[in-house]
Amino acid sequence: MQLTEKHKQYWNINLKMSAFLLFLWFVFTFVMGWYARELNEINLIGPLGFYMSAQGSLIIYVAIIWYYAHYMNKLDQEYGVHEGELD
Amino acid sequence: MSQQVTQSQFYANLKRYYSFYTGGFIAFVIVVAILEQLGVPNKILGYIFLFATIMLYAGIGFMSKTADVGEYYVAGRRVPALFNGMATGADWMSAASFIGMAGTLYLSGYDGLAFVLGWTGGYCLVAILLAPYLRKFGQFTIPDFLGARFGGHLPRLIGVIAAITCSFTYVIAQIYGVGIITSRFTGLEFQVGVFVGLAGILVCSFLGGMKAVTWTQVAQYIILIVAYMIPVVWLSVKHTGIPIPQIVAYTHSLPKITALEKEFNDKSTPKGAKEESVRAIFRERAAAADAKLKGLEKDGAAYLTAEKAALVAKLNALKASTDPAPDPKAIEALEKSIKDYPMDAATAKKAWTAEKAVGARAAPVKAHAEPFAVGGKTPEEIEKNRNKAKKNFLALIACLMIGTAALPHILMRYYTTPSVHEARVSVFWGLFCIFLLYFTAPALGILAKYEVYSNLVGTSFSALPAWVSNWSTVDKTLMNIVDINKDGIVQLAEIVIGGDLIVLATPEIAGLPYVISGLVAAGGLAAALSTADGLLLTIANAMSHDLYYKMIDPNASTVRRLAVSKGLLLIVALMAAYVTSLKPGDILFLVGAAFSLAASGFFPALVCGVFWKRANYLGAVLGMASGLGVCAYYMYMTYPFFGVNAPLWWDIAPISAGTFGIPAGFLGIIIGSLISPAPSKEIQEMVDHVRYPSLDGTVSAGSAAH
Fold first, then answer.
1. Does residue B319 contact residue B326 with C-beta atoms inside 8 Å?
2. In-domain check, residue B368
3. Most A-contacting residue of B250, B611, B684 (CB-CB within 10 A), to test interface
4. Which of A65, A81, B34, B534 counts the most CB atoms within 10 A of its CB?
5. Model pTM score
């Protein structure tokens, strides 16, 4: 089946959103990990570097996945590529 | 499940069944608790837990028995997001997560968090890069996708090999966990425990394939999460009166641990001085062993004879002395050391090298919350070692994360949801279910450390807490406590704790009755069995579906395909149990190796398959082969077990071999694709088909015929 402009637009938006969320994922994993010692100087709920690796980044991962599912399921509807009703 | 039931009714029914099930399970635990109060011995309680839960899983397996191909391979594609998430959680969390994780964090502090991050963050990759697209593709196995996307038999075959290699490595670690738990809580032999556990796994997957495995995994998730939470919450209440360990650990316990660590390392404080007296003894012992080793190296066997003669002379002198009268204990000790004196140079070297290693126990206490705490003589050396630790920490995280997004037994789960929409949501529920355990484990590590540092250290040897004396008699590798400096008081340097102790002993530390220990054992068993289930099914499916049906006999009837699959399942399970009963090497390395292999073999091909239309047959073959090849080569060359011990590349440890395998895989697929023609129009259309949830407004049912 031939893809329409709208379809291509949908895919581009998906790519951008994916890239953005993966960027967040990267920052809260690798950048955070690299500067863990420096972050430990800050004390919020325990030393921040330790807290982020033990809990903070995990919460962000859950949030990233929730947001992606929510966003994409809405985008499907907008661009008419959603699936029909399940029976 | 008849097709007349609509998806929403089905979902409502499931919720009702599992609510009843959870209630029933709690009632069962209460009954066992009453039995305990009536004086039933602990060993019997252990048996009740073991057999009741295995019977339960077998029962679910039996009720889900099926002869339908779609149900056998992908649970009929009607598992709702929430339940697929719970099944993913159980599939994912293995014996290592349940029993080992908190202990690893207890022992290695911040640096152990690589596992916490690595085993959760990977789901971001699953959610964004793979799950929705695999669901839309809607076949049965991961090699299926490779075969359809890249064409030809070779990509599928490499996929089958990669799936079998990493799943088999991983399943051995699981069955090992099953054996340890059953033998510890029931007193059965390790080998017997392995086969009892295996029976539970097999009844389930044998009869109902993916369908039975899915519904059993949901049941197992409920048991394992309840079993993990109760003792930790209780411990948190015991320390602070607040039942939220995930907050209490950081605000209450961690600052106190940090203060105690400073005290232990400061010789001018009373606690520090006592620690120092123990450390001094370890240093002396290590130095003495070192001197002996040097002597042995210089003079060889002659040194042994001379030393032994010196001991005999000393003994004779002691016996001959009259003023003061010889201490009979000293004589006895000397006689014993003469009797035990190493016979030859090889035994001597082994014994003294081991003795020299106690020097490590003289080291200062490592700060729990400090990342990359390394030693070194000069600031430059410290900086260098720190960079090495940092690099390895991040490399391990990367391998674990990308491995997560490439392990076939996890990816397979996303074929089972009713739609692309549900697949996305189910990754969220999956990570949420995993997160509940993984954000508790670091808190448990801290709470347990607080208990040891503040309550155990400083107590008298004559009044040790019950859990310490119990575990030190059960298993010296888990709890070893000896009064080294003979002052009658416990010092931190006198305690050696095995990682697995933390989760296993938490109920007793928190002062809970034995029934909770039995519950924890049942939880650990659930974690190991559920992961083993998923892995064995992946291996059997790769062989029966991809190898037999797709490549050897495409005309095989449904009955025959299922028969082959079940037969293979049995053979693979027995092989895995046999290999496990030989107790091969290091479990943590096996697990790490599985992740690095999966990451290097699958990830580049899967991601490029969806996101790069130009990727083609030659690219996939080159990419997967080079990824797997480089990864396996690096492990073989550097992991001590294989005995080559080649120098490391950029100081990366062998467990993170994927650091080189993954880029090699991507490089292979890019080069291979660019030097050969673009894939056919049909394949490019298939990529479009996979990228959009629906181009015609219907739900992609997948197909049972393919």
1. yes
2. no
3. B250
4. B534
5. 0.89
